[in-house]
């Protein structure tokens, strides 16, 4: 089983600050070419992530900012990653376990895993960070990609 840690999941080329999107499909259309060109995902990823998000939405009503945690099945992933996007403004995203409710997501933590069920501990760690009072606020206020990724490395411990 592959061991996940923050040194092999966060990458500078997968941190995106202040991009605007009309909806989740537009986000996936933006991020897919980056992931594919750098070998993180297979060609099948784009259709799979859109279908999974439509069936099992992932926005969490975290405070003070809403976080979406999209992911898909391991057969569409070549190497593990966490891509983090801070949305300019917000983007409409369906709430996890409540497809009838639309939240306005501020952050998108796109998860790519290669081990079935290997993401459960990571999800718990991320959820704990999201509920810390100042973590999302610090990410929201960060001015540079370098500072952003430093915060991720220092606060998100796998």
Helix content: 25-40%
**Can you write the helix and strand succession as a string?**
EHHEEEEHHH
Any idea what the shape is?
globular
* Strand arrangement in the largest pleated sheet: 1-4-5-3-2
Number of strands: 5
From the helix content, strand content and strand pairing, which structural class follows? alpha/beta
Mean pLDDT: 91
Separate helix tally:
5
Instruction: State which percent range the strand residues make up.
Output: 25-35%
- Tell me the major beta sheet: 5 strands, mixed
- Euclidean distance between termini CA atoms: 15 Å
Summarize the model shown.
The protein is of the alpha/beta class and 158 residues long.
Q: What does this protein structure show overall?
A:
The protein is of the alpha/beta class. Helix content is 35%, strand content 28%. It is built from 5 helices and 5 strands; from the N terminus they run βααββββααα. It has helices spanning 24-37, 45-55, 120-131, 135-141, 145-155, and strands spanning 10-19, 59-60, 66-68, 81-95, 98-112. It has a 5-stranded mixed β-sheet with strand order 1-4-5-3-2, sandwiched between helices. Helix 1 (24-37) runs antiparallel to helix 2. The protein is globular.
Can you lay out the helices and strands and say which pair or pack?
Blueprint: E1 10-19, H1 24-37, H2 45-55, E2 59-60, E3 66-68, E4 81-95, E5 98-112, H3 120-131, H4 135-141, H5 145-155
Parallel strand pairs: 1-4, 3-5
Antiparallel strand pairs: 2-3, 4-5
Helix pairs in contact: 1-2
């Amino acid at each position: 089983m592959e061991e996940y840690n923050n040194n092999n999941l966060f990458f500078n080329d997968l941190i995106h600050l202040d991009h605007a999107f009309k909806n989740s499909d537009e986000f996936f259309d933006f991020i897919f070419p980056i992931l594919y060109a750098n070998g993180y995902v297979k060609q099948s990823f784009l259709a799979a992530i859109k279908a999974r998000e439509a069936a099992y939405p992932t926005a969490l009503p975290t405070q003070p900012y809403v976080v979406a945690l999209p992911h898909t099945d391991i057969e569409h992933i070549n190497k593990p990653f966490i891509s983090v996007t801070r949305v300019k403004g917000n983007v409409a995203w369906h709430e996890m376990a409540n497809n009838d409710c639309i939240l306005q997501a501020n952050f998108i933590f796109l998860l790519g895993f290669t081990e079935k069920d290997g993401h459960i501990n990571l999800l718990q760690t991320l959820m704990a960070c999201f509920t810390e009072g100042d973590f999302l606020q610090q990410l929201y206020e960060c001015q540079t990609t370098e500072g952003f990724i430093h915060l991720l490395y220092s606060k998100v411990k796998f």
